[in-house]
Amino acid sequence: MHMSDALLSPAVGGAFWAISAGMIGLSAKKISTEADGSKTVLMGVMGAFVFAAQMINFSIPGTGSSGHIGGGLLLSILLGPWRAFITLASVLVIQAIFFADGGLLALGCNIFNMAFIPAFIAWPFIYRPIAGNGSSPGKVTAGSITAATLGILAGAFAVVIQTTLSGISDLPFGTFVLFMLPIHAAIGIVEGVLTWGVLSFVSKTEPALLGPVHENSPSKAGTVTAGVFIATLAIGGVLSWFASSSPDGLEWSIAKVTGKEELTAPAEKAHEFLDEMQSKLALLPDYDFNRTEETETAPVAPASPVNTGTSLSGIAGSLMVLLLAGSTGLLLRRRTPPSGKL
């Protein structure tokens, strides 16, 4: 559900840049005052995992569309909302700058839709009331699926609102909503099931991460960290080869309304400048090597799932997020005053 710049006016894009930047600053301030920095390392590892997991687009049967997890709810449950927001913002920044996944103008909107909504709406107002203290597997399952689905739907609706407010596309509000919400409901259900699966693993290895009811359980942080890191390398380096090539929910909805999956950005200075900047910064656009005219016209090799560009993107991107989110957490932790002192 990464928005492109073609959907947004500079005014709307700039406004959400300001909102997201403000929330990043507030989150950093909140984290710096926390006495417990035990989840600092997990910020980097879980951020890398979410980056890799977002590369796996799964098909939505009977639609010709695909989707990928957002990861915001999972991060909020394991890290708390402030750390989750910073971690997912790190993922989205790396994706936009180095892989041209989501526009630079749209980065503020993407952070709001995919990080703010799950961390500060879906987690506190939907997941926690349903899941309670995490002692009931049934409640955790219901909370995961319900919160993930409603969070994804809220993010999808925000995309429609932001696009409509921008007024630079030919996407009518009613029709756009009609396609966006049902397809993202399906994506949200899948994300909820996957979130529950990861939480089930954590509950068996380090249940203390899931809530106060488990705080006297023996810590196995190393097991969780190692397991998640191994899964990250496997997903980003190998499983990403098998991601669905079908358009994602946003592209599919746009195609249903306009007949094309991507819209052309207006020829104005802000869009042209940001597009040129992104093209220069992106090391592996669309998670693959740049294709020249010569390679595009070369004979097509026999189909093979192996893609070194995708593997490099998955591993390199995951390590970038690990470094960015992890170092941010460490920096903020160092600013935390000793317990009992101002």
Explained architecture:
The chain is mostly helical. The protein has one domain: Orthogonal Bundle (Arp2/3 complex 21 kDa subunit ARPC3). Helix content is 66%, strand content 2%. It contains 12 helices and 2 strands, in the order ααββαααααααααα. α3 (72-79) crosses α4 (81-99) and α7 (173-205) packs antiparallel against α9. The longest helix has 33 residues, at 173-205.
Supply database-style keywords.
342 residues, mainly alpha, Arp2/3 complex 21 kDa subunit ARPC3, two-stranded antiparallel ribbon, 2% strand, globular
Topology summary:
Layout: H1 10-32, H2 40-54, E1 58-60, E2 65-67, H3 72-79, H4 81-99, H5 107-131, H6 137-166, H7 173-205, H8 221-237, H9 249-258, H10 269-281, H11 293-297, H12 308-334
Antiparallel strand pairs: 1-2
